[in-house]
Amino acid sequence: MSISASNVPSLSSVTKYIDEDEHEKTKMALIFDKYNHRLATLPKERGWITENLYMYQGFWHQSKRRMSFETVMALQDTFNACPTDIYLATLPKSGTTWLKAIVFAIVNRNRYKNDSFPTHPLLISNPHNCLPFVETEIFRNTPTYVNDPHSPRLFATHIPYTSLPRSILDSGCRLVYLCRNPKDVLVSMFHFANKLRDKSRGPMRFEEAFELFSKGAMPIGPYWDHVKSYHNVSLKHPTKILFLKYDDMKVDTVNHVKRLSTFLGYPFTEAENDDGAVQEIVRMCSFENLREVNKHGDLREGIPNDAFFREGTVGDWTNHLTSEMSEILDQITNEKFHGLDILF
Ligand code: A3P
């Protein structure tokens, strides 16, 4: 049994989810075989974690990874969305893990209402085990939630809006987009890449990360195009796409949790508000708490749980960027976001 939606996810199903790795590897190999011949036709750039990035539909992707152009192509060909699905879209290092935890906690709060430590999934497992990426679903034997009579299915994705599978765009489902100050995304991605990249390549220098980021070449970048792809549609369809900023969410997490719960169709009742249910979710999903839960173990081979919890602050870029680097990124951001209400 995989994590089925009817019991998303109990302790035993979280464990089972992790155990399905072997089957996933076979399915991944099949998908890579099917789409990898396209690689020769795609523009290429230096990679951060993998050796190269490949441009597909205007965005830079890895190859032969869970997050890869092959995966996007396979999803575009085969994925079936439901109108009741909820998608959490982000660029890597924009607070995906935090958003996953919060949304999972909101939607499943009644299921775990009376559970205390250590039975709530977020108190024993990485948020990435609780709410899957649609990119990883495609490799699963029995996709998560497949027989679930309950709604909604919750998925995260890093795919840019313009490359989402047609069925997601047509389904009319709800989508939350979380973005973050580009300078903090750059710094966060730089540290993440150095933790995960092949040791034989040696560590990446910050100057190299800056150069690649500035020209748009980061995994699923360009940063600015990714953000704009979702921002544009959120303006046209505000009831379908909620556009949020990590930086604002850090300042006022309580109100963001309330906003999210209303948007997702799970508003807090008066009694819950009086009982401090919102504050409880904020506390459970706090950086300090999630970092503590995830200080040991691996999400999967080569990806330690603690790689997703570094500083968890706004403005760490001031410790990494020279004033010249900062000015260059400001200039690019001002040009790319000109006329748009995207300020950090
Ligand atoms: P830093 O590297 O700046 O610390 P993602 O989840 O998209 O991979 O993003 C990772 C970034 O989110 C990291 O940023 C990480 O520390 C931060 N993060 C993880 N959990 C968080 C939480 N609960 N609250 C705030 N930030 C969090």
Automatic annotation (TrEMBL):
Residues 83-340 form the Sulfotransferase domain. Keywords: Transferase. Gene3D superfamilies: P-loop containing nucleotide triphosphate hydrolases. Coiled coil: none annotated. The keyword Nucleus does not apply. Pfam families: Sulfotransfer_1. GO terms for molecular function: sulfotransferase activity. Its EC number is 2.8.2.-. Belongs to the sulfotransferase 1 family. This is Sulfotransferase. It comes from Cynara cardunculus var. scolymus.
